[in-house]
């Protein structure tokens, strides 16, 4: 059996000499073979792009196997002689099968196992595909997607449903499903451990009005995703929970039906590129003034249609701002201190309440929605590059909330 994976070989003698390992994983193939001279002896043959001749390890020399993180596709095989540790990264299902087979060889339970002999095992390393582009239905692989894929493009095929076999690609970093007619993304998609770029442009995610955004709440996506393209999906709103994509650098939501942006967008500290062109926006949330954008495109919206005379306080008594409930005070502390919260730690109603927090022009969180006004700001002071319609004043209307009379 052959296992295509990434392996780091650690020589334990180096630690006694205070020599650190490189920490680099190499694309490798690990083959479990039968010795030609003895039917009861088995060996592991390791070869890679660096070691093309191969290194042989006897199965009898296996001292210990560390499989605590096998569900994450990680395992370590420790040999007594030579004193090497093979640190393996691989697709977890294939790794489980390989470990099970290796364990059978160690215990001697090999009656139903048929392994190739050393003479029939090629020692040349076969490059596993890491990139696949599909623009025609006939290009789909007959045996399914290679588990080693790091980049997958399935574009322009009018796919109606999300292909669930994509969920098995644990090494996937870039996924492009643009120019299809996909209406739903399954919640399990949020468990993709290495996904950094996701292109869902020109699909139909918003065609039914109600969208299942649960995949955004999964821990893996929140920590890894850096680029998200949702352009051309007929979206009428973005979820308030989008701020939890704390690693997101680029957000594209062009050519949708958005009339407003969530106030929580100002909590996306790493956001640098934002494109919101071709929507129906009449104002922007003042929380965006806290972002450090390098580029923003807000052309072809309705940001200049608002009458500035309508920009007035709806509540005229400023002293009411100083009276807050205990829930409001506690919520402001949680938001300001960036304390982590989730539905599994606090009730869902509190999660929605915290996600609904606004931001004052000074940056302080605001839970009271009664004190607000519309103000004009020049975006050139808040972003390096601004793409907008011709506007003689060069200003954009912002919906501003206030935490105290001093900020009015």
Automatic annotation (TrEMBL):
An annotated GO cellular component: cytoplasm
Domain of life, per lineage: Eukaryota
Keyword terms, alphabetized: Leucine-rich repeat, Nucleus, Repeat
Every PIF1/LRR1 pleckstrin homology domain range: 1-114
InterPro entries: Leu-rich_rpt, Leu-rich_rpt_typical-subtyp, LRR_dom_sf, LRR_domain-containing, PIF1/LRR1_PH
Keyword Nucleus set for record: yes
Matches recorded under PANTHER family: LEUCINE-RICH REPEAT-CONTAINING PROTEIN 18-LIKE, PTHR48051
Protein name: Leucine-rich repeat protein 1
Species, as recorded: Spodoptera litura (Asian cotton leafworm)
Taxonomy of the source species: Eukaryota, Metazoa, Ecdysozoa, Arthropoda, Hexapoda
């Amino acid at each position: 059996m052959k296992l295509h994976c990434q392996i780091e070989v650690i020589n334990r003698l180096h630690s006694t000499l205070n020599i650190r390992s490189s920490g680099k994983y190499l694309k490798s193939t690990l083959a479990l073979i039968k010795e030609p001279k003895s039917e009861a002896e088995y060996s592991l043959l390791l070869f890679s792009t660096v070691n093309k001749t191969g290194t042989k390890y006897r199965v009898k020399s296996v001292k210990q196997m560390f499989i605590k993180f096998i569900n994450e596709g990680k395992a370590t095989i420790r040999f007594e002689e030579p004193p090497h540790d093979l640190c393996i990264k691989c697709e977890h299902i294939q790794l489980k099968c390989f470990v099970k087979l290796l364990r059978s060889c160690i215990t001697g339970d090999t009656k139903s196992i048929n392994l190739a002999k050393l003479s029939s095992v090629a020692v040349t390393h076969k490059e596993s595909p890491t990139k696949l582009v599909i623009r025609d239905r006939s290009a789909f692989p007959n045996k399914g997607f290679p588990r080693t894929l790091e980049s997958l493009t399935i574009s322009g095929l009018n796919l109606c449903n999300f292909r669930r076999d994509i969920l098995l690609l644990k090494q996937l970093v870039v996924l492009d499903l643009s120019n299809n007619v996909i209406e739903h993304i399954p919640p399990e998609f949020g468990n993709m451990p290495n996904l950094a770029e996701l292109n869902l442009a020109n699909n139909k995610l918003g065609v039914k009005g109600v969208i299942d955004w649960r995949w955004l709440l999964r821990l893996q996506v929140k920590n890894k995703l850096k680029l998200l393209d949702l352009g051309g999906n007929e979206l009428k709103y973005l979820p308030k929970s989008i701020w939890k994509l704390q690693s997101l650098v680029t957000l594209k939501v062009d050519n949708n039906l958005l009339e407003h942006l969530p106030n929580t967008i100002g909590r996306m500290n790493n956001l640098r590129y934002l494109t919101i062109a071709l929507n129906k926006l009449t104002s922007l949330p003042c929380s965006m003034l806290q972002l450090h954008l390098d580029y923003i495109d807000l052309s072809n919206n309705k940001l200049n249609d608002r009458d500035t005379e309508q920009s007035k306080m709806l509540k005229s008594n400023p002293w009411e701002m100083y009276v807050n409930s205990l829930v409001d005070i506690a919520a402001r502390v949680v938001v300001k201190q960036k304390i982590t919260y989730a539905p599994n730690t606090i009730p869902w109603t509190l999660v929605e309440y915290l996600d609904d927090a606004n931001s004052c022009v000074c940056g302080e969180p605001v839970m009271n929605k009664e004190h607000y006004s519309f103000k004009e700001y020049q975006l050139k002071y808040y972003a390096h590059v601004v793409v907008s319609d011709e506007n003689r004043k060069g200003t954009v209307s912002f919906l501003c909330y206030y935490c105290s009379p001093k900020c009015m």
